[in-house]
Design a protein that fits this description.
One of its GO terms (biological process) is amino acid transport. This is Amino acid permease. It is found in: Cell inner membrane. Belongs to the amino acid-polyamine-organocation (APC) superfamily. Amino acid transporter (AAT) (TC 2.A.3.1) family. The structure is a single chain. By secondary structure, the chain is an all-alpha fold. It has one domain: Amino acid/polyamine transporter I (Up-down Bundle). It contains 21 helices and 2 strands. A two-stranded antiparallel ribbon has the order 1-2. Helix 5 (86-110) crosses helix 19 (419-451). The longest helix has 37 residues, at 488-524.
Length: 525
């Protein structure tokens, strides 16, 4: 199936097709290209949103998009899987995700009035792929939101459980309260949403910085600790002396086999998922052409500090061989281990408090993004009922689309209460994560089409070596999807995602083809 063609299209770069032209012709071409760069104000004529997000909001939204609950609770599993080499996996996958963000950033820079990067798939790959990507991404956001609201209540119950308070019977009420509160934040104004994300991200950053500082102090003191029982870890964890040799001791690239090393890439990839969220905020950002490049370019530094820095700190304190799978298949939180060794008896409560904020931040962002995507789908729809969702409120937010998206997420407590339905939902939710890979591939292909189009801005936020980088990213995403078929845990997700791609993608292509045929027939008459 061919998604794109590489024809002789005009890239808009001055002098590309004028090798025989003189200097004056090149100058005229450059001036023509410059005139093609439209101001944000002119592009905003059809943008009804308020540009209420400030630079600090966007910067911390970008940070929040790279730090999820997986770092706080799931990093123990990743370390156990392949040891210290997991650091290189995080760096490698982070670089690929950076390429995705540079592609999104370049297209959003060219037209910062777009509410979502999905619009560029429609523009450069056609309405059929745009429809597939738009509806698929919205469904992914809703399903992910359902899992996040469940996670919020679970972490909330665990947090109070550390104080001997059992709230299991009230999980449904906790989920309802969180969802209503976060939906309300999204309905008030976009700057209120930005402020909430700013403080959510600040809490996560504080814990990570605290972890790194704790590791540095322990290293300086040559700190040692005895064998200790850690909440969430079966048995007793062996004692050790804090040292960087804990990382280098017996280092191997694949200490638990090459298959585990290979499989670690998919796990790290899913930890980075939704990093693209900052690309949904551009149409509501003040001075987007200044703020967006800064937010995207600083992603690498954030990855090095918050992921790599945290992993190095953890393994310097806790030897990587001390991470083992529990009897129930879970892994202990490295953050709880570190702060417990540092003498913080309420380490579990501290970490789970931060995890609650991380999950709430993710849910808050998902509601925001789902509302904007449904709003865009409604604007593109020919259905009068759908078009009513494509309106903004007096506060310049897509209130109807946000409320509908929030109500869809609200089905999560009902689904979890029905055993038969709950199992199917887990499959669909995990398949949703797999389907995002198709969205990323389409985004990179749309970027290639953009670079070959007359829309290309040579003086914009240009992605270097795009001819090679785009294909590297696409190849990586294909490989990640293939690895889903290699594990029994992810096989169902891989099959379900592939079925969705073939069935719904095929429907979108056929529907668009027949619609165009009918339109041509009508015009012919």
């Amino acid at each position: 199936m061919t998604i794109m063609t590489l024809g002789n299209t005009n890239t808009g770069k001055a002098g590309t097709n004028t090798q025989a032209a003189d200097a004056s012709d090149a100058t005229q071409n450059a001036q023509s290209t410059q005139s093609h760069i439209k101001s944000v104000e002119s592009l905003d004529k059809d943008n009804d949103m308020e540009r209420g997000l400030k630079n600090r909001h966007v910067q911390f939204i970008a940070i929040g998009g790279t730090i999820g609950t997986g770092l706080f609770l799931g990093s123990g599993k990743s370390i156990a899987l392949t040891g210290p080499s997991i650091i290189f996996v995080y760096i490698g996958v982070g670089l690929i995700m950076f390429l995705l963000m540079r592609a999104i950033g370049e297209m959003m820079y060219s037209d910062p009035s777009q509410h979502t990067f999905i619009n560029f798939i429609t523009r450069y790959l056609g309405r059929a792929w745009g429809k597939f990507a738009g509806w698929t991404y919205w469904i992914v956001l809703i399903l992910t939101g359902m899992t996040e609201i469940t996670a919020v209540s679970t972490y909330f119950v665990t947090f109070f459980g550390t104080f001997g308070i059992d709230l299991n019977a009230w999980k449904w009420l906790i989920e309802l309260c969180f969802l209503v509160a976060l939906t309300g934040i999204n309905l008030i104004a976009v700057k209120v949403f930005g402020e909430a994300e700013f403080w959510f991200s600040m809490i996560k950053i504080t814990l990570i910085v605290g972890l790194i500082v704790t590791a540095v102090v322990m290293l300086f003191l040559g700190f040692s600790y005895p064998a200790t029982h850690i909440e969430g870890v079966d048995g007793t964890v062996s004692g050790a002396t804090v040292s960087l040799t804990n990382i280098a001791d017996g280092f191997q690239l694949a200490p638990n086999g090459w298959m585990n090393f290979f499989m670690s890439f998919q796990m790290v990839f899913f930890a980075y998922q939704l990093i693209e969220f900052v690309g949904v905020t551009v149409s509501e950002t003040q001075n987007p052409r200044k703020v967006l490049p800064k937010a995207v370019n600083e992603l690498i530094m954030r990855i090095l500090i918050f992921y790599v820095g945290a992993l190095v700190a953890i393994m310097a304190i806790v030897p990587w061989r001390n991470f083992h799978q529990n009897a129930d298949g879970s892994f202990g939180s490295p953050f709880i281990m570190v702060f417990k060794y540092a003498g913080l008896d309420w380490a579990a409560a501290l970490v789970f408090f931060v995890v609650i904020t991380a999950a709430a931040s993710a849910l808050n962002s998902l509601i925001y993004s789902a509302g904007r995507h449904l709003y865009q789908l409604a604007q593109d729809s020919e259905s009068p009922a759908m078009q009513r969702l494509g309106e903004v409120s007096d506060r310049k937010v897509p209130a109807k689309a946000i409320i509908v998206s929030g109500c869809m997420i609200l089905f999560s407590p009902l689904i979890n209460a029905i055993p038969g339905v709950s199992g199917a939902f887990v499959l669909f939710a995990s398949a949703a994560s797999a389907v995002v890979i198709f969205i990323y591939i389409l985004t990179m292909l749309a970027h290639r089409r953009y670079r070959q189009s007359a829309d290309f801005l040579p003086d914009g936020f240009v992605m270097p070596a795009w001819q090679v980088c785009d294909w590297i990213a696409v190849a990586f995403y294909v490989v990640v999807y293939v690895t889903l078929f290699l594990s029994s845990d992810t096989l169902g997700s891989a099959v379900a995602g592939l079925v969705w791609f073939v069935v719904f993608g095929g429907y979108c292509l056929l529907h668009e083809r027949f619609q165009n045929r009918d339109l041509k027939a009508a015009l012919g008459k």
